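Chapter summary example: a protein plus zinc ion.
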Amino acid sequence: MKKFLLALFLFVICSTGAFAWRTPRWGYLPVNVYIEDHPKKAIVESAFNTWQTASGEIVSFRMKDAKLASSLHVKFEDKNPKVQKKDFSHAVGLAATQSPLGFYAKVDLTIFLLSPDTGRPLSDQEIYEISLHEIGHALGLQHSTSRMDIMYPLVHGQVFLSPNDLNMLKQIYLPD
Ligand SMILES: [Zn+2]
């Protein structure tokens, strides 16, 4: 089973060279989502709503109270101590995806709450931006080179989805 790890960095741009094959995607909608209980949970829920609404429901989500009933899980971590790969040591968000047949079977998102470099708490706006970005990965989007896009691989004050973000989504879910 292929397993990918994608990260959103504060200061480091990561490579997307390993993701040249056809983009995995969800084979059914809505996607069942479980977000662990946490004071910041509503921010992440809001980011899911933004993807659903801004895309005109090209993608949709159903929030679940039980982890077992869901395929897309979101958890929170104070810091980023567990990532073994040095390349990910500055990450503030992670998306681990499993897509055995080109369709997502399971996606785990981790949202970090503290800056990995200074230890300062990330703001609600930053957590929202990180959530939008990681949900993008959870839908199959890869990194963008434009700072106008939420899929740009740095936290850069972006708090909405760009036309290009939504076009990338359309190419995955509504191919010509
Ligand atoms: Zn990323």
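Key point: The CA atoms of residues 9 and 85 lie 13 Å apart.
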